[in-house]
Every structure is written in C-alpha cells, then in structure tokens.
Amino acid sequence: MADEAPVVVVGAGPVGLFAALALRAHQVPVVLLEADPADRHRAGSRALYVHGKSLSLLESASPGLGSELATQGVLWNVRRTLYRGRQVYAREFPPHDATRGLPPFTSLRQSETERVLLQACERAGVDVRWNHPVTEVVTHSGGVTVATADGTTWSGSHVVGADGARSTVRRCTGTALDGSAADGFHVVVDIADEPGGTPSLERVMHYEHPAADGRGVLVVPYANGFQVDVQSRAGDDSDLLASRQEVRRWLPALIGPTPTERITAISVYRFLQLIADDFTDPHHRILLAGEAAHLFPPFGARGMNSGFADARAAADAIVSGRRTPEVNAGAVAEFATARRAAAEVNSAAAGAALRHLRPPTAAARLRRGAAARLAPVVPRFGEWLEHAPYGPRVPMVRH
Ligand SMILES: Cc1cc2nc3c(=O)[nH]c(=O)nc-3n(C[C@H](O)[C@H](O)[C@H](O)COP(=O)(O)OP(=O)(O)OC[C@H]3O[C@@H](n4cnc5c(N)ncnc54)[C@H](O)[C@@H]3O)c2cc1C
Predict the structure, then answer these.
(1) How many Å lie between the centroid of ligand 1 and the Cα of residue 322?
(2) Measuring from each residue's beta carbon to the nearest atom of ligand 1, which residues come in under 6 Å?
(3) Total-model pTM
(4) For residue 375, how far is its CA from the centre of ligand 1 (angstroms)?
(5) Domains in the chain, please, with CATH?
(6) Predicted confidence (pLDDT) per residue in 194-250, tens digit
(7) Edge-first strand listing for the sheet containing 158-161
(8) How many helices (H) and strands (E) does the chain have?
(9) pLDDT at 1 over 80
C-alpha cells in the first residue's frame, strides 16, 4: 500500500477523533467513518475528567487544543470526603495560575470534549463521514478494505478501531473481550447549574450517605452543571432507582430542592472490567483503541483518558511503520503489546477502587469505618478515604 493511502478511523467518539488528529499531525490522510448522524445527541455527561497528561497529549498533537479544552471546563478547588454524614477529609487548592501552563485537569461534559475535538479535526482536514456504519473490515498484508452499510468500500493502509464497547472492528479481528462484569451499577444524574447562581466547585465523596439509605454518593462539578453519582446497594433495581419519579423523590435529600427542569439526564452505568485478547489482527493492519479495546469501571477516569493514550500510540505506530510491511508489523505489534499491558494496569487499578467502594468482605467494610473514626486524629486515614475511590496512582499517560 502506497504511503499516501488513508488511514480509516472508525468511530467519532473522543478516542477516534483524537486518533484522527494525531494522524493528521503527521500529515497522514484520514477518513473518519461514524455510524451516527452529524446532529446526534449524546445523552448524559459521561466521562468528565480530563487528566492534565491528556491535556498535554492533545496539545502536542494539535497546538492550542489542550488549553482550549481547559478553558471550556472547570477546575474544582475543594475536595471533601464524608463518612455517614461526618467530614473526614477536606482540602482547598489555590486557583490555577494559567501563566504556569496547562491545569492539572479539567472537567466538562464528554459531548463538549467531542465538540472541541471535532472542530480541531475539521481544521486539520480530517474527512469525516457521518451516517456511515462500518459493517466489515478485511485485512491483508498490504492494507485494509472497509465496508459500510450503504455498500461503499474504503481502502486504506490501516484501520483504527475506535468504535466503542460493541466494536464491529474488534469483531472483525476475531479477538474476544476477556474479563468480568461486577454486580452493581451507578445512577448518574446530571443537573444544570442554577441560572444566574454561583456554581459550587466542590467535589464531594460521601460514603454510606445517611440520606441515601447508606449508598455511596459522589458529587462532581463540570462546566455549567454537576453530576450526582449514586452507587447501588445489593438488591437495588436499576429501572426503579433510576426512574424519573424515584430520582425526584431521593435527589432533594442529597442536594436540596431542585426544579425538575434542571435535571438534564439520568443514566445507569455498570461495572465492566474487560480487555480485548489482542489489540491488532494477524496482518497488523487493525489497531484497537479506547472502549473497543477495553472497558473499565469509571473510578480514576481511566476510560476516556487511557483511550487518548491508545489513540496517540496507534498514530505513532502507523506513522513509524509506514515504510515497509516488516517495519509496520513490528511497530503495530509493539503498540498492541504496550497498550494491552497499560490496559491491564488500568483495569487492576480500577478494580482495586471498585473493591474499596464495594467492599467484598465484612472486614474490608470495617476497615473503612475504622479509618473514618480515626481520621480526625490521624489525617492519613482521611487521605486514604479521599484517594482510594480512584485506585492506586499509576501513571496515566502510559495509562
Ligand atoms: C452512561 C455512561 C456514563 C459514563 N460515565 C463515565 C464516567 O463517569 N467516567 C468515565 O471515565 N467514563 C464514563 N463513561 C465511559 C466513557 O464514556 C467512555 O470511556 C468513552 O466514551 C470511550 O470513548 P470511545 O471513543 O472509546 O468510545 P465511544 O465514546 O463509545 O465512541 C464510539 C463511537 O463509535 C461509533 N460507532 C459504533 N459502532 C460503529 C460502527 N460500526 N461504525 C462506525 N461508527 C461506529 C459510535 O457511534 C461512537 O460515536 C460512561 C459511559 C456511559 C455510556
């Protein structure tokens, strides 16, 4: 396949959009095929937290992109943790000084992140085709042929499969997703800020919230709104707990009276811990990235952030392998091994966070309670309760 053959990116979620941008940064022609129409509505705030390292990654592929995203999002400057109604940790951070570079993170709705990425793709000359669901991908030693539902075929040097959890591209590689689905779910309620009000920039984690019948509750601010994330208890029914009627009943006890029109979305999010057996195909022409390759519980915001790192690594492998099929095979195999190893690390970290939040044994639950009791005299126990819901601190860009 000649060097000027395009790379076909499948999926215009955050990972596919960034893969396209990272390829364009090397002047590689890119066709981006997306199943949904251009005017789609993506329900719910979904992944909010963009790590500082992701901002740097975006900035390096598209100068100005990291700072644009940071400007669109918010930084919460207060973190509080409570246990059964009693505060066990609180910390206020000074405001970020923008002259010192990118902030440590930013928080905005995933649809906003996607809007900014899409605009950058359009500026960078990505050929975006909406309403083009991919139905089949066939690879050979020199490249790929991709079919879309309207019968069109697309030839390219590689496919980046960024088509999410139910990936068609992954199915075409013949690789399976391996792992487990834990019991339980989160109900995530999005609430718009009060018009004209001063938004709270406090991120609050509440273990065993008395007003939520002992469920865990996390409140996370984002630009123009905030998320209330309620962790299910054993025996909860997701249809019931997440019904509009029920949400209207339990929400005021957590955040005070809230007019119904400020509730912009209610979503149910389940705990999956799955990784594709292989991130490429036998010809090394498909590179899986983001949720097409791995699904993690959301703790530590590893889904979208590690997807950005996959996308960048995929683009780098494609660019460095474009000289000969042999060099390509080596570069793509290295990508697949490195990103699978990163996914294992992230999955284990998210799993540790999940076990902290849903203690599998009475002893583990007691440990949390003991830490809460000791926190007023031994601050590191409060710090542990604050940090453990995000899992161990593993590097995020090797993510
Ligand atoms: C309700 C909900 C809440 C979430 N909350 C959080 C959270 O709090 N924190 C967090 O880190 N993560 C969260 N996530 C996960 C987060 O949204 C994902 O990590 C992120 O979207 C992954 O991005 P992606 O680009 O890999 O996949 P996606 O965003 O799923 O994008 C895949 C794209 O591929 C397209 N596509 C699919 N099939 C085809 C096809 N055959 N042909 C062409 N296009 C196709 C889809 O239309 C979509 O545009 C949440 C997800 C959901 C659903």
Answers:
(1) 29
(2) 10-16, 33-36, 44, 46-47, 110, 133-134, 162-164, 168, 188, 267, 269, 290-291, 298, 301, 303-304, 307
(3) 0.95
(4) 38
(5) 7-74+100-179+272-354 (3.50.50.60), 182-271 (3.30.9), 359-390 (no CATH)
(6) 988 888 899 999 999 999 999 999 999 999 999 999 999 989 999 999 999 999 999
(7) 127-129, 30-33, 7-10, 158-161, 286-288
(8) 11, 18
(9) no
